[in-house]
Every structure is written in C-alpha cells, then in structure tokens.
User: What shape does this take?
Amino acid sequence: MINFPDAEFEPILSAIAKISANNAGPILIAIDGPAGSGKTSLASQLSNNLKSVTTIHMDDLYNGWEDALTATLTQHLNEWVINPMTQFQSVCYQKFNWSTNEYGPAVEVRDIELLILEGVGAAQEIIRQSADLTIWIEVGPQIGLARVLNRDGDQLLPYMLKWQERESAHFLMDQTKENCQIFIDGSNSQIK
Assistant: This one.
C-alpha cells in the first residue's frame, strides 16, 4: 500500500470539503493514472479520512484484458455509473470475475453520498463531464510495473507489458492527464 504524504493529501481533502459544502447531490471523484501509480491506495486513504465513501475499482468494470480500455468500458461507465448518479438513483454494475473471465452478478450501490471511481480509465472524458473532482497520479512505467508485479506476481509480466502499451495509447487519445484537476507525483510516495 502506498501512503501519500500530507503535502499531497491535504489539498485533496480541502478540495473535497469545498465541493461538499456547495453540492447537495452525490459527489463523484475520479482517480486515474498508470498501473502501479497508487490509485487504489489514494482511494483507500481518502475512504479512511472521509465519511460515507463508496469506492468502485475500474478492475471490476473492465471486460477482461483485451476489451478493457475500449468503447465497451465507456458504454458501461455511462450506463452503470453516470446515468444513475445524475438521476440520483442506485449505481448497478456487473463485477468482472478475472478467474472465469466473465461478468458476474450485478452489484447494487444505494444511497451514494461520495463515490470514488479509481483505476486506469476512471477519469476518461465521459467521466470528466460529470465528475466533481478528477485526480491524476503520475508514475514512470518501470516503477509502476515493478509495483504491480510486486503486488500481484511476476506471472502478470506479459499481460502488464501489453497493458502499459494500451493504457499509454488510451491516455494519449483521451488526454486524461492534461484534463485532470489535481496532479500528484506517485513516484515520491512511500510504500508501507
């Protein structure tokens, strides 16, 4: 788990406090960046410091390795997250089962006050249009790859090398980094 220092973490909490003070509806925060940058860790750190947080991990929404950062994901984000949230309804999505390589039963999330959507593709354009806050965590490809393999095992190396190509192409096309509101250098964060 990566721990973000107060200098990077406190401005995010401050931004969320301002959003909360001016927003009566559910709040959507998107955390994006390359694999291994610390997105899940930041989401967890935020959840531990805020009330009524729901986190959805992009890994649960991807349609496997080959169809992850495609129009399918964008369609699912729109149908499963954006449309329900803008209509103050429950978010209902199918969680991808990586063991069986197919979607499992629906997961329903009710009464969302603050939703954190974290993972590669979380702050893509369709999300940025509705998100209250978008955060980009930067990390170099070698550091990110080492973190992922350390966390999930060396057997993922061939998948991760291909994934890094796909995420780079996605970020370039979508201009995700350039359009996020907060930028964090994830390479400086401490691993606990």
Observations:
- Residues 61 and 86 are 19 Å apart (CA to CA).
